Amino acid sequence: MCGISGYISKRDLLKENNITNTLSLMERRGPDFNNFYKNAFQDKDLVLLHSRLNIIDLSSHANQPFFYDDLILVFNGEIYNYLEIRDNLKKKNYNFTTNSDTEVLLKAYKEYGAKCVDHFIGMWAFAIWDLKNKKLFLSRDPFGEKPLFYFLNEKGFFFGSEIKFIKSLCKKN
User: Fold this and answer.
1) Catalytic (active site) residue 2
2) Which is the catalytic residue, given 1, 2, 70, 149?
3) Residue 29 and residue 4: Cα distance in Å, rounded?
4) pLDDT tens-digit profile of 71-126?
5) At what angle do helices 101-112 and 82-91 cross, to 10 degrees?
6) DSSP secondary structure string, 49-97?
7) Torsion-angle region of 8 (φ positive above 0: left; ψ -120 to 50: alpha; else: beta)
8) Which residues contact 18 (CB under 8 A, 6 or more apart)?
9) Residues 11-49: tens digit of each pLDDT
10) How far is it, in rounded angstroms, from Cα 151 to Cα 129?
11) What is the per-residue pLDDT for 26?
């Protein structure tokens, strides 16, 4: 299992130690690698955090946050039919640099947009930041096998695969 978390808030609302403390909390869910992505736009900050447990592609090329074109992904779960989706995307001239379902998920989003989830069989929770359109897309599997919690207040939008990640980021009980 991996851990994901993140937020969109007013610029400079959260300090760097909020991020590092949250990543430390997330290590239990993914001890193999952890990292974050931060982007400032307009008067807001966006941060995506990920802790990785290596399962499908053990190489560092599949580490997250995962980037493709103008998209950034943090993902927890498994897309069981990713090989089938990958083959269909290859027919549409997509190339792959990893053997991961992470890369397939992000390229499926690039091809199908929000409808990508209609193609997935599996369990997942993920967040995709679209740099070009300044939009955040979140999804979880229909049965909620992989949790995705969120919190919205006047200061921002916070999410995570565990509630304690949100509490750590926004310093709220």
Assistant:
1) yes
2) 2
3) 9
4) 999 999 999 999 999 999 999 999 999 999 999 999 999 999 999 999 999 999 99
5) 50
6) EEEE---S--SGGG-SSEEETTEEEEEEEEETTHHHHHHHHHHTT---S
7) beta
8) 168, 169, 171
9) 777 777 788 888 888 887 766 778 899 998 888 999 999
10) 18
11) 84
CA 12 to chain centroid: 21
pLDDT digits (tens, 9 = 90+) for 42-65: 889 999 998 876 666 556 666 779
User: Across the chain, where does the E strand assignment appear?
Assistant: 3-10, 33-41, 44-52, 66-68, 71-79, 122-130, 135-140, 149-153, 156-160
Residue 95 pLDDT: 97
How is residue 10 written in tokens? 């007013």
Distance (Å, whole) CA 107 – CA 18: 31
Q: Does residue 68 contact residue 106 with C-beta atoms inside 8 Å? A: yes
Question: What pTM does this model have?
Answer: 0.92
Tracing tokens 């937020």 back to the chain, one arrives at 7
The one-letter amino acid at 32: D
What count of Cα atoms within 13 Å lies in the side-chain half-sphere of residue 103? Answer: 19
Q: Note whether 26 and 5 are within 8 A (CB).
A: yes
